[in-house]
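seq:
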Amino acid sequence: MYPLSADDAFFQRLRLLDHDLFLAVKSKPCPRCGGPLDTAHYPRKPRGLGECELKRFSLCCRREGCRHRVTPPSLRFFGRKVYPAWVVILAGDFCRQLGLSRPIARQTLVRWRRFWREWLSESHAFMRRARAWLPPGHPPCNRPAGVLDAFAFPDRDSWIRVLTFFRDAAF
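struct:
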């Protein structure tokens, strides 16, 4: 089961988990100057979801002269990519089965496959940290589908674990 076919409860759960991450970051001072952080959410229109608009939780330093933006990690968004996180994770291996409202450009898929080959290589810093999350003895993964297998894909709870696993890879 892919998240696109999931009910609204799945997406609401992702939103709540993102909100918890937001609250954890908001409770801390600005990492640059130590000033207080104010809410500064901004709209995102992830591709492939039709005309859906989502808010990306974010913060901004209140101190004049700093105004540094702090954007907490997310399970719904993958860094600055314009597709939802789960689409980026699945696209390399299952792009035809996603059923997106607009197809993903071929050059985008090539770029994402290159991204995954680099990030999931055993020598990359992300994968060295992430090995602790994978079950003991799990073979090396060089594509997202290998990681999905490690988390007993495709039940809904495994999707939360997969998105949490990749959350730290976003940049």
